[in-house]
Amino acid sequence: MKTLFGHTFQVLTRAVQLRAKRHAVISSNIANVDTPGYKAKELPFEEIMKSEFSKQTPPPLPLERTDEAHIPGDQEVTGDAPRLIKERGVPNDVDLDVEMAKLMENNLQYQATIQALIKEFDMLKTASTEGGRA
């Protein structure tokens, strides 16, 4: 599959995954705006993309268990890879306006990445259906 789709497809696919995860993190911050002791979290998209694509094989996107009752998912990244979800500061530091702005920005970037993926598929379709025509 790597030879058919190439590096661009891999980058765009990973970007969509990270944007979706970042959406969940920001939504969690918004949902916990009034929760006592809650520390806002951040998923540093650019840092993760840079780290993962400077290596040949990016690690899978881990899930964070905040409660023993949660269903286990992928394990947290260890070693020299950055911790994906970072706590930002002191308890109750959620600013609703800031989080909503981040959510809107992330949504726009997610939509742009989806459009880029659609263009990649369109180019493959064109190459496969019209590539042999003179």
Keywords:
single chain, 134 residues, mainly alpha, two-stranded antiparallel sheet, 3 helices, 3% strand, elongated
Question: Could you characterize what this model shows?
Answer:
- Helices cover 55% and strands 3% of the residues.
- The protein has three helices and two strands; from the N terminus they run αβαβα.
- α1 packs antiparallel against α3.
- The protein has one domain (2-130).
- It is mostly helical.
- Strands 1-2 form a two-stranded antiparallel sheet.
- It has helices at residues 2-31, 45-53, 96-130; strands at 41-42, 86-87.
Please outline the helices and strands.
Blueprint: H1 2-31, E1 41-42, H2 45-53, E2 86-87, H3 96-130
Antiparallel strand pairs: 1-2
Helix pairs in contact: 1-3
* Run of helices and strands: HEHEH
Strand content: under 5%
Biggest β-sheet: count, sense, barrel? 2 strands, antiparallel
Q: What is the CA–CA distance across the termini?
A: 28 Å
Mean pLDDT: 80
Order of strands in the sheet with most strands: 1-2
How many beta-strand segments? Answer: 2
Which runs of at least 5 residues are low in confidence (pLDDT < 50)? 74-82
Using the CA coordinates, give the radius of gyration: 18 Å
Q: What is the global morphology?
A: elongated
Helix content: 55-70%
Number of domains: 1
How many helices does DSSP assign? 3
Which class of secondary structure composition applies to the elements? mainly alpha
